[in-house]
Amino acid sequence: MNEKKFNVLKKNFFYIESYGCQMNISDNEIVISILLNNGFFLTENLKIANIILLNSCSIRSKVELAIKNRLQKLKYLKKEKPILFGILGCLSNSMKKNFLDNNLINFTIGPDSYKKIPSIIRLSMKGEKISHIFSSKKETYNNIKPFRKKNKITAFLSITRGCDNMCTFCIVPFTRGREISRDPYSIIKECKTLYKKGFKEVTLLGQNVDSYVWFGSDELKKRIYKKIYTENKKIIDFSKLLDLLAIEIPFMRIRFSTSNPHDMSNKVIEVISKHSNICKHIHLPVQSGSDKILKLMNRKYTRKQYLSLIQKIKSIIPECSISHDIMTGFCNEDEKDHQETISLMNEVKYNYGYMFSYSPRPGTYSYNKLKDNVPEFIKKKRLQEIIDLQRNHSIFQMKKYIGKIQEVLIEGESKKNNQYWYGKNTQNIVIVFPKKTYKIGETVFIKIMDYTSATLMGIGIEKK
Ligand code: SF4
């Protein structure tokens, strides 16, 4: 890029892409809002954009590679016009070094520095190379109204940022910093605004939602939170927050993600069962079925404790679906450990899950202190085994829906057939069905006729 040619005063259009988790998608909405309020214009057209932002995730090496490939592909734009490239989100130092120091990009901005993005872009336009990555104990973006696309009916809302858990394989505590919970009053207010705008479902996000906690100051408690605080319940934990939200937005569906098994309390399970508008689905990453590996990962629960939590969920909310994250091939994982993961999966029979093999991330404990000693071909083989097993379990779970009637919130047109809608039931299972005269945002009753491992198919019926 010829920085001298960059006209800082002309209209600046930014284009943004997101990689990684739901948290990044939610952060995109914050970044867009900040830029729109500071004289920048959003575009979905790369030809128009003169600022390209890639919101990254460094939890897995795959994403780093995907971003590298994307930057290579977009390189041609530099020949056509003055253009800036910036990487946002969870950035490892290696990413910063690889991309910024090698002139592939102009700036990097960490998740706690988004309010600085307009000034960083302006400085980059003058030719400065900038990296602004620091973690804050205060930043929650409470006062930013996230940008949300029109005609959407589901929204993400962050309730915590960062994580204190220090799993040995994870970069999040270093890139997103210590855990901070967001003020409950602003969460309730934003949910109510979403409902007024036509949203029908909200997903509460956090790296570890179950450790949400809000103390507030005495003065604030008296003046603002009278409704929230009661004499003997001065602290708002996640169960209380869910309870309050379910009452305050009774016609909105509430989901949440992600739960750490170590922090999920009985109270949370009871609150989920008590309210019909809290969805009956829990994403409960286990990572491994072996105590030896869980310990090496610093997951703070044992296989037995995890299984007893599953038991509790199933006994209090029998219809609850459960999904997982499993990592295969972690340091020192042997065949016995792998078989313990297989046996745990057989015991739980998850509805679905996200599976991947271990890749050491620079800056983490496992990268610095443990040996990545499982050969790649064994990692691949074990990963394939758990993927195949999960597919069987998903089919087993899906079969149970045949002939049943499901309440489905319509989210949009099916990608495979424009004569069909798709939506989800309370268990977060995707259901497709003929459009009839239904509209997006409606809740309809669907009789399930068929299934694949990932989708249910049905027809709309009148519920008497
Ligand atoms: S709970 Fe563990 S895996 Fe999840 S974000 Fe925190 S440190 Fe990372």
Automatic annotation (TrEMBL):
Residues 149-396 form the Radical SAM core domain. Its cofactor is [4Fe-4S] cluster. Its EC number is 2.8.4.3. It is an enzyme of class 2 (transferase). It holds the Pfam family UPF0004. Signal peptide: none annotated. The keyword Isomerase does not apply. The keyword Disulfide bond does not apply. Keywords: 4Fe-4S, Iron, Iron-sulfur, Metal-binding, S-adenosyl-L-methionine, Transferase. Residues 399-462 form the TRAM domain. Residues 12-126 form the MTTase N-terminal domain. Catalyzes the methylthiolation of N6-(dimethylallyl)adenosine (i(6)A), leading to the formation of 2-methylthio-N6-(dimethylallyl)adenosine (ms(2)i(6)A) at position 37 in tRNAs that read codons beginning with uridine. PANTHER family: CDK5 REGULATORY SUBUNIT-ASSOCIATED PROTEIN 1 (PTHR43020), MITOCHONDRIAL TRNA METHYLTHIOTRANSFERASE CDK5RAP1 (PTHR43020:SF2). NCBIfam families: miaB-methiolase (TIGR01574), MiaB/RimO family radical SAM methylthiotransferase (TIGR00089). This is tRNA-2-methylthio-N(6)-dimethylallyladenosine synthase.
